[in-house]
Amino acid sequence: xxxxxxxxxxRAVARARRGRQRxxxxxxxxxxxxxxxxxxxxxxxxxxxxxxxSTAAAPVTLAPSVVPGTPQGNGxxxxxxxxxxxxxxxxxxxxxxxxxxxxxTSAMATAVVGSGCKIGHAYTAGTTxxxxxxxxxxxxxxxxxxxxxxxxxxxxxxxxxxxSVTISGGxxxxxxxxxxxxxxxxxxxxxxxxxSTSVSGQVAL
Length: 205
What we know:
Number of helices: 2
Shape: elongated
Largest sheet: 7 strands, antiparallel
Structural class: alpha+beta
Number of domains: 2
C-alpha cells in the first residue's frame, strides 16, 4: 500500500513538473502573432505614406519657341506668338510667365478686354485688345484651332491666368502682346512654377 501511494505521488509530481514546463497555449500564441502582424503593418504603412507624400512632382519644361517669321507690329502694338511644348500635361494654375529685359522685368497689363481677346472666341494673329492698364504686356493662350482658352495678365501685382486650362503636346500657343517691340531687343520670356511642380522654359523674343 505504501509503495502504491509513493508511486502515485511520484507520478503526480512528474505531471506537475511537465505542466510547468509546457509553452504558451495555442490561443495566446495566436493572439500574439496577430498583434505583432498588426504592429508591423502599421509601421510599414507609416513608412510608405511618408515616402509617397514627400515625393515631389516631376519637373515640367514648357520648351517655348517663337513661331518663325511671326513677330509683327504696327508701331504701337506688337505680338510674338510662342509655341509651347510641355514635357508633361500641366495646368495653367501651376505655372506663370514673365518677360525680362537686360535691365529688369517688364511691366504687365492689369486688364485684358475687347472683342478680339475673349475666352471662347477665335484669336486672329496680330489682334490686340484695348483695356485699362493695357500699357503692359499680356498673353493670350490658344490651341491649334485658335480658340482663346485663357488670358495672362497682372492681378494684384503678379501674373495670373484668367482660367484653369490643362495643356499638353505641342499644339498650344501663347501670343505675347506688347506695347512696344520686344523681339530683337533683348527681351526674354521665362516660365516658372507657382506650386509644387517645378516648371522651366525660356526663349528670346
